Amino acid sequence: MIPRYFVVAESAHELQNPTSKEKILEAGSLLGLGPDSRVLDVASGRGGPALFLASAYGCAIEGVEISPDFHGVADARIAAAGLANRVSFKLADASKETFAPEAYDVALCLGASFVWGGLSGTLDALDPVVRPGGHIVVGEPYWRSLPLPEDYEDRSLPFTTLEGTVDIIESGGLAVVSMLDSSLDDWDRYETQHWDALERWLAATPEHPDAGEIRARYEREKRNYLRHQRELLGWAIFVGRKQG
Ligand SMILES: C[S@@+](CC[C@H](N)C(=O)[O-])C[C@H]1O[C@@H](n2cnc3c(N)ncnc32)[C@H](O)[C@@H]1O
């Protein structure tokens, strides 16, 4: 189960990653998505990527999401957009799901490689479900420079450099054919939406039993973003092509 902190902090995000609608649509265009395309979206969250891609390209998308709060929002957004005939979401732990072999043109995992213990495990899990010549698309953090400062908030995060990230993807037999890197504007939008949602929640529910813990984490993460993360942490959408 994901921590309550994220359910509060991401209660208003359109996209739960430091990226933009334009970059999601650009990825869809690079992938050549169309009405005949079948897409698996692992950790589909509040449904933002599926909503944008199905609206623009008419593709069929199946999402899997573990958080009931996010799953509920995703369902409602898709129904409101009149896309329920193209997009469906399953409330489940993706790591425990069995997906039909070579059933998808594209498998997406944006910001959730921890589902299979990291990037390599995620690529191993998704490779069999994508048809030959199809694509695996991962949204993944990377360090812009190493080593990290001593006072970085969490020095144990399992990320590597940009070059190292592409090496991991290609060592699994995929060719990285595109990369959509997040801008500082993307990062600031994503991070400050956390601040806004958390401030609103703390102001509305000051006596909530989780309020103290959530405020402490919010303040630590905000400080770390301003001091280090904004400069040191990158994030990109990597498009990997499976051999045909
Ligand atoms: C960073 S968010 C990304 C959401 C979405 N992909 C997007 O780009 O807007 C990560 C998502 O992974 C979900 N998640 C975490 N563990 C999961 C699991 N084992 N199975 C399915 N979803 C999971 C979280 O609930 C959260 O919605």
Describe the structure.
This protein has 244 residues and is an alpha/beta fold. The protein has a single domain (4-192, 218-241), classed as Vaccinia Virus protein VP39 (Rossmann fold, 3-Layer(aba) Sandwich), CATH 3.40.50.150. The protein is built from 8 helices and 7 strands. It has helices spanning 4-9, 21-30, 48-57, 68-80, 119-126, 162-171, 184-204, 211-232, and strands at residues 38-42, 60-65, 87-91, 104-110, 130-143, 175-181, 233-241. Strands 3-2-1-4-5-7-6 form a 7-stranded mixed beta sheet, with helices on both faces. Helix 2 (21-30) crosses helix 3 and helix 7 (184-204) packs antiparallel against helix 8. The radius of gyration is 18 Å and the shape is globular. The termini are far apart. Bound molecules: S-adenosylmethionine. S-adenosylmethionine binds next to helix 3 and strand 2. S-adenosylmethionine is lined by residues 2, 15-17, 43-45, 48-49, 64-67, 70, 93-95, 110-112, 115.
